[in-house]
Structures are given as C-alpha cells and as structure tokens.
Amino acid sequence: MQEREIKVMKKILATNDKMAIELRAILKEQGVLYINLMSSPGSGKTSLLENTAKNYDSNLAVIEGDIETTLDAKRIANAGMISYQINTGPFGGDCHLESGWIKSALEEIDLDGIDILFVENIGNLVCPAEFDVGAHFNIVLISTTEGEDKPLKYPLAFQNSSVCVITKTDLMPYLNLDIQQLKDNIKKVNPKMKIIELSSKTGDGMDNWFNFLNNNKLS
Amino acid sequence: MQEREIKVMKKILATNDKMAIELRAILKEQGVLYINLMSSPGSGKTSLLENTAKNYDSNLAVIEGDIETTLDAKRIANAGMISYQINTGPFGGDCHLESGWIKSALEEIDLDGIDILFVENIGNLVCPAEFDVGAHFNIVLISTTEGEDKPLKYPLAFQNSSVCVITKTDLMPYLNLDIQQLKDNIKKVNPKMKIIELSSKTGDGMDNWFNFLNNNKLS
What we know:
Two copies of one chain form a homodimer.
Chain A: H1 3-29, E1 33-38, H2 45-55, E2 60-66, H3 71-78, E3 82-87, H4 99-106, E4 116-120, E5 137-143, H5 150-153, H6 155-159, E6 163-167, H7 179-189, E7 194-197, H8 206-216
Parallel strand pairs in A: 1-4, 1-5, 2-3, 2-4, 5-6, 6-7
C-alpha cells in the first residue's frame, strides 16, 4: 500500500474514532443501549431485528446501513420499529458505516422513550469491523450455513465484537456444520466472546438473546 | 468523502485497470481461461472449486485471496489443483484483490498446460466488484440461504459479472426462498446475466457449470 493512502486512511480513522467516543457517551447519558450488528450479507441481521420487534417488549429504533435500496428499513418499519435508512451509494466509502453518518442520522431520530438503538451495518464481514461507530456492543452474526472457518478467515469482526450470534440453527440438520468447531474457532480469535445460538425463524434460542438485552439495558 | 481520498482512489483504480487489461490479454494469448469468483463469505466458492477439481477433467490452477489463513489454499491443493495463496493482511486494502497482486502471483505459478485459472476473491460482496482483476469472466455466487434481495442491495457485484451461480440448491426445501424472485432481481440488475443453479454438495446442476467451462475454454 502506498504511503499517501495510509496517511489519508489514518486521518479518516482518527476523525471517526473521536466521533465514536462522543456517540458512546451521548447514548449512555440518554439511557439508550446502542448496539452495532455486523455480518455477511444474508446472515440474518434483519430477521433477528424483526423477531425482536415482534417478541421483545421494548421501544426499539434501527439505523439501517445499505449501499442501495430501502428494503431493510421497510421490513423494520413493518415490524413496528422506528427505522432510519443510510444509503452509502454505489461507489467509494460504501462498504461500511462511519460514526459521523450515525451522528447525522441521530439528528433526524427522536430517541425520547427509546430503550435500544440498533445499527444494522452494511452486509460485509471485512470493512465495518475497521470503523468504530461508537456502539456499547459490537455484535457479529454468523449463520450456520457459512461454515466453521469464517472466524479464522475474517478475524477482525470477531476480535472487535463482544457477542457472536450464531443464526439459522434450524438449518443444522441439513448441513455438515461442526458447530463445536465453529465455536472453538470463535474462541480462538476472541476468548472472551459471548456466544448466543438461535433461529429467528423458529424462535429457538431467542430467549437467550432477549436475556442479553434485558441484562444490558440502561433504563 | 474528502476530495483527497477520491484522488488517491482514482489513481489506484487507474493503475489497477491498466494492469487488468494487460493480464486479460496475456492469459488469452497463453490459451488460459481466466475466471474471477466473487461472493459473500460462505457462499460456496471453495466448495464449487473442490467439486470442479474432482469431477471436471481439466488442468486447473487457483489463486486464493484471503485476509488471513491458508485454509482455502489447502482445501484446493487437497482437491488436486495447483493453488497459490494471497493474504491481504489484517488491516487496510484487505477487502478485495487487485490486478497487480494477481500479476505478482502469476510470476510464481507455472501456467504451462493449465486450461483454467480461477481467482477466488476475498469473501465480500462489496469491494471486490470495484476492482477489475483482468479476468475473462467475473462470476458472482449467491447461496439460496442469502435471500432474494441481495442483487438489489449489492448491485455492483451483479452488474460487473456475466454469470451468476446460485449455490446450495439442496437446501431449498428448508428455506422460504422464492427462487423466481431471486432470479428476477438478478435480471433486474443485470438483464444479460447467465444464471446457473447448482449444489456442489449433491452434484445437482454441476453439468451446467461444466458445460459453461467447456464452451469457454481457450485451448
């Protein structure tokens, strides 16, 4: 990588991280638990939020990050949550969200009475992990269909998260997945990771997810 | 995005694209079909290559792109293909492959007698599509578990590919997927896309994939 590119990258990261620290403090002061969901496309971030909206008694808001479309924001709104869409556009800076964009979004969202703010990051297991959006918890999702090796191959998303949600457990009978190996690989990359296994479709394991939210709500 | 960042990005892309054009011509002259596989993590790129190595009678070489680990290169080597690993490292420029890195890899690989060179790009549906690696075909994979909406949400990977392989069709009985909707969305983003449906696990549909390779081999 060229030196000039590195310098620019460092400057962007420094600006991002400063804003992230501010956001973390502001949301804490407001009593809003702030959670950043990261995963590959199709790992089930939106489905987890839909199930949560329907079955978890709390006031939720979601900031949706997508390169294009408002499909997820519509799904979230239909599920009864306040939703705000950030589209990062078709080219350049489109593979992740940054804290400054969250701050701008928050100027448009009324957080009064909101218990939990979720950010659904861009579907990408690489770039979002490089940008702190100031959340109280970074949570990485991985579906049972993605294989045991992903934590080793994409370690940063797992190192920079404190909770890993293994999704789509209902599909396990039809897969060759060695779930213990997957969990061992997660722990190898991040020994302190809390792991929650669930299926948003059948509801199996959702109680563990709701317990996690209960235990960490700020108000 | 800041103006300075855009300038650097444009310079990198121009260098990349120039090298990509050279690579495309060099491989054509050598009679080697050159295919770039792109998808999310866990969509089944390595499994498709493993099945191809076992069941398709041809001399194959694979350049594996991963942020970390040589797990895929080992799987590929075990399946009997020549494999070369590029690790992009843990931070910065790690979300895609560039044509210059392929060129460097090719200096280490003996292409004599090779019919097809595959690049297995970084598992990421966003960044790899922005960087032409000079392949004769960009092929995007999407698994049946990822949902119907991904072509609309990550259009560039679908616009910049000429073939879309829908993988893991064996899981369809256990999913709510509307495959016609998925195909409609692919065609909406890229009306000329050739679509191949298959399961690397059961072998269903692999004949269509092998036919595609047969029809496009250069020697």
